[in-house]
Design brief:
Layout lengths: L1 H7 L3 E7 L2 E9 L2 E6 L5 E2 L9 E2 L2 E9 L14 E3 L4 E4 L10 E3 L6 E3 L9 E5 L15 E4 L11 E3 L1 H7 L8 E5 L1
Parallel strand pairs: 1-14, 4-5, 6-7, 12-13
Antiparallel strand pairs: 1-2, 2-3, 6-11, 6-14, 8-9, 8-10, 11-12
Length: 182
């Protein structure tokens, strides 16, 4: 049964916090369970810009970005993926017209640089949190990306090891939903 699920792709990635630690969790993919990092603010049903919380929500995987020089396996997925160039950023200013959208840097408003020295975005999938429609201040740059050593907290994203990401990418598609529950 599990082999059939993996051949046809994963429909749901289920994420929940680890008991006793709001910023670490477990990601269930079919019958497999992997550790993951969550936002430093835990899981929130009322996500706000800058609160560091991971949204309590079901979010589709829209596609993503990868560093070809660090994570060539980023191409091995059914999701639309684009290489991360040195000029790729993500706007995080609620008042800006490009809030929660990719931007070309240098950019006038505050933004996150996608080509990071810490390699967290070597494989980075965009979740459909606050994408369409966008609501000012409801949170930006909510991604599924690579974790820091020790699964230290994110700023609201869900993060896994590079090995876990490489294992999951071929099983993901535009119909896959990352569902964060309590």
């Amino acid at each position: 049964m599990a082999d059939a699920t993996f051949r046809s792709g994963l429909g749901i990635l289920l994420v929940r916090a680890k008991p006793g630690n709001q910023s670490k969790g477990f990601l269930q993919a079919g019958n497999l369970v992997f550790p993951c990092a969550l936002g430093k603010g835990g899981i929130s049903a009322n996500k706000r810009e800058g609160d560091g919380a991971t949204p309590l929500a079901s979010m589709r995987l829209l596609g993503g970005y990868f560093r070809n020089d660090h994570f060539a396996k980023g191409r091995k997925t059914r999701l639309p993926m684009a290489p991360i160039g040195p000029d790729l950023g993500w706007c995080e200013v609620p008042e800006d017209r490009n809030y929660n959208r990719p931007v070309r840097i240098p950019y006038g408003a505050s933004h996150e640089r996608m080509r990071r020295d810490d390699r967290l975005y070597d494989a980075c999938l965009v979740l459909d949190w606050n994408i369409a429609p966008r609501r000012r201040g409801r949170g930006s740059a909510i991604f599924f990306h690579l974790a820091r050593p020790g699964f230290t907290p994110t700023l609201g994203c869900v993060a896994v090891t590079a090995r876990t990401m490489a294992r999951l990418l071929p099983l993901l598609s535009g119909r896959t939903v990352l569902k964060v529950v309590r």
